[in-house]
Amino acid sequence: MSAAAQHRPARNNRLLRALVAAGTSAAVLALPLIGATSASAAPAASGTTKTPATTLAGYPNNLDGWIRESLAIMAQKHIPGTYHGIYRNIMRESSGNPRAINLWDSNARKGTPSKGLLQVIDPTFAAYHVAGTSFDPYDPVANITAACNYAAARYGSIDNVFSAY
């Protein structure tokens, strides 16, 4: 085959590689934000009622709505915290799963596993429960609000928590 007819590999183009890398990075960064508006509890088993689209308070029944409802309650109770601080900690602790449970750490070995979106143990949940929310530690709004109340007492705000607490 003549040299003119041979397939030539495309030259490495720095600009093209940079654009692809930037696009991939942007997509990776955007995925958690997209998930924040669509994360919700596992779908209901067949034959059971579907999860309502909104909470009793009228917020969307998903991660975004749970955080916003918690923030409204926190504002009434003067508990500090921001959407970003709550979201960041939820993603680290449970990846947005309100039914998450830790069965392997030191708390679990003592018989009190961490539960829910912000991985709160039962004694902490009971001590920092906020009136007007459910007494179920798996309830997303109750879990967020109690965890933020605890973080405010211990660290000044959930916004000051950057690791397991």
Can you put this structure into words, describing what you see?
The protein is mostly helical. The protein is built from 6 helices and 2 strands; from the N terminus they run H-H-H-E-H-E-H-H. The protein has helices spanning 14-36, 63-77, 83-93, 106-109, 122-128, 140-155; strands at residues 101-102, 114-115. A two-stranded antiparallel ribbon has the order 1-2. Helix 2 packs across helix 6 and helix 5 (122-128) crosses helix 6. The longest helix is centred in the N-terminal third of the chain and has 23 residues, at 14-36. Mean pLDDT is 81; it is low at 1-10 and 24-46.
Short descriptors:
165 residues, mainly alpha, two-stranded antiparallel ribbon, 6 helices, 46% helix, globular, disordered N terminus
Q: Which helices and strands occur, and which strands form pairs?
A:
Blueprint: H1 14-36, H2 63-77, H3 83-93, E1 101-102, H4 106-109, E2 114-115, H5 122-128, H6 140-155
Antiparallel strand pairs: 1-2
Helix pairs in contact: 2-6, 5-6
Global geometry: globular
Total number of helices: 6
Average predicted local confidence, pLDDT:
81
**Rg result:** 22 Å
Report helical residue fraction. 40-55%
Major sheet details: 2 strands, antiparallel
Stretches with pLDDT under 50, minimum 5 residues: 1-10, 24-46
Give the terminus-to-terminus CA distance.
Answer: 68 Å
Structural class by SSE content: mainly alpha
